[in-house]
Amino acid sequence: MGGSGSLGGSGGASPADGLDGSAGPVAAIGKDDAFGRFLSYVLRHNPAAAGIALDAHGWADVQALLAGCARAGKAIDRDALALVVRENEKQRYSFNSDGTKIRANQGHSIAVDVELAEAEPPGRLYHGTARHRLPGIREAGIRRRSRRHVHLTDDVRTAIEVGNRHGEAVLLQIDAAGMRREGHRFYLSANGVWLCDYVPPSCIAIVPEHE
């Protein structure tokens, strides 16, 4: 008998909810920072941590990933994985068209080609960093270090959040138009991150209120 309060009724909780309306196990894992860090590590840096391999374009087989997560003590089902992908604030991950493969959209330290298309950036972009890194940036510019690209954004708040991860944040304004005139190439990832190989010191300015 299905009254309005039953799980099957229009007023019932969804499968991701607890019976009391609180977040259930599927919803909870969508917000699980520990699992998110593990997924990022596997898909961007070390697929062997889950006993899987990525193809040349960074794709992992979903079933192999789920089995690998279970072996690593990070068990998750397909629905919960889809929730992680959907609810990730920075939209770091994508499924392929039939949902059988998954990859990180950018941020890799391993050699994969995520098929980025060259794109024309806005005239100004931003990069958040920590104050203690400024001397090196002033001297040598922004280098990609262990990653495949330098990460830039057109959103000031995002840049500041990134800078805060590493210490006292400093906001840098990037003369993307000037870089283009000098021949630098830009790419736009599927989740809206602007990427390039290097930012020279001549195209970097500290935003005054963050100096």
Automatic annotation (TrEMBL):
Q: Which family does it belong to?
A: Belongs to the KptA/TPT1 family.
State one molecular function term (GO).
tRNA 2'-phosphotransferase activity
Annotated function: Removes the 2'-phosphate from RNA via an intermediate in which the phosphate is ADP-ribosylated by NAD followed by a presumed transesterification to release the RNA and generate ADP-ribose 1''-2''-cyclic phosphate (APPR>P). May function as an ADP-ribosylase.
- Name of the molecule in the record: Probable RNA 2'-phosphotransferase
Q: What is its EC number?
A: 2.7.1.-
UniProtKB keywords: NAD, Transferase
Q: Which GO terms describe its biological process?
A: tRNA splicing, via endonucleolytic cleavage and ligation
Q: Does the keyword NAD apply?
A: yes
Note the superkingdom of the native organism. Bacteria
Cross-referenced Pfam families: PTS_2-RNA
- Asked if NAD is a keyword of the record, the answer is yes
Q: Which gene encodes it?
A: kptA
Record-linked InterPro entries: Ptrans_KptA/Tpt1, RNA_2'-PTrans_C, RNA_2'-PTrans_KptA, RNA_2'-PTrans_N
